[in-house]
Amino acid sequence: MATSLMSGLIASGYAPQQIWVSDTNQATLQSHAERLRVNISVDNEAVTDEVDVVVLAVKPQVLREIALQIAPAIRQKNVLVVSIAAGISQGSLAQWLGGDVAIVRCMPNTPALVLTGATALHANAKVSEDQKDLAENILRAVGLTLWVADEAQLDAVTAVSGSGPAYYFLLMEAMEKAALELGLDEHSARLLIQQTALGAAKIALESSESPAQLRERVTSPGGTTQRAIETFQQNGFVELVGKALHAARDRSIEMSKQLGAD
């Protein structure tokens, strides 16, 4: 995700010299320096001293250790902290960083890797309007962004878009299996399914109609699509999707409690 953000920012016009990256893996750092021409360091505190925005793109299990490490440098400057670590609340992060820190918490998803991500953001009370604009510009470099009014809504965002790509992959996987049973070869089945998914998403994005209206528009009465849709509905497809998203939301809340501040 960090690599995608850096690539997106550079593609958007930011100079590589404006970007610093810190990592424990020297080979990874060297690759970034050679490919992206960004500044590199193994010293998180030194990087914090050089920048106006710190993006924490690390696994949630190590965020506490890193936050405590950079806390002194963060407190010395009016640095904006942008966290894309799943499950770590702003309250926990603020506690680790030492109090009154401007924090924007984000929930991106994996399509950010190909610059078509969807990211929800929430700012705490310490974030200025200019800092909000800056955070939005950073995440917009890898796709769509939107702000949520309540941090708790990020648990719902996690269930919908954060985990969402896997749901579509599961549907594509099931369709491919069925297509093979129907006699198509693997290459043809996969290509047809991928292009169909892309086309459906493009229609939905460019249309002002709801998904229900779009579905009705392409479902001819008594036709093949209606038969398939009725089979989905009769076997509890809508209810199952609802249960799955509620389960993902609940797990997001559990993780926040498990990974948060003591």
Note the main attributes of this structure.
262 residues; alpha/beta; Rossmann fold; ProC C-terminal domain-like fold; 2 domains; five-stranded mixed beta sheet; two-stranded parallel ribbon; elongated
Describe, in plain words, how this protein is organized in 3D.
This protein folds into two domains: 2-154, Rossmann fold (3-Layer(aba) Sandwich); 164-256, Orthogonal Bundle (ProC C-terminal domain-like fold), CATH 1.10.3730. It is elongated, with a radius of gyration of 22 Å. The mean pLDDT is 94. The chain has 262 residues and is an alpha/beta fold. The protein contains twelve helices and seven strands. It has a five-stranded mixed β-sheet with strand order 3-4-5-6-7, sandwiched between helices. A two-stranded parallel ribbon has the order 1-2. It starts with a helix and ends with a helix. Helices cover 59% and strands 12% of the residues.
Task: Reconstruct the topology from this structure.
Elements lengths: L1 H10 L8 E3 L3 H11 L2 E3 L2 H7 L2 E4 L3 H17 L3 E4 L6 H8 L4 E6 L9 E7 L5 H12 L2 E5 L5 H10 L1 H18 L4 H21 L4 H7 L6 H11 L2 H23 L3
Helix pairs in contact: 3-4, 7-12, 8-9
- Which series of helices and strands comes N to C? HEHEHEHEHEEHEHHHHHH
Q: What do we call the CATH topology of the largest domain?
A: Rossmann fold
Approximately how much helix is present in the residues?
Answer: 55-70%
Question: Residue ranges: pLDDT <50 for 5 or more in a row?
Answer: none
Going by helix content, strand content and strand pairing, the class is: alpha/beta
Major sheet, described briefly?
A: 5 strands, mixed
Strand element count: 7
Mean pLDDT: 94
Helix run count:
12
**In CATH, what is the homologous superfamily of the largest domain?**
NAD(P)-binding Rossmann-like Domain
What CATH architecture of the largest domain would you give?
3-Layer(aba) Sandwich
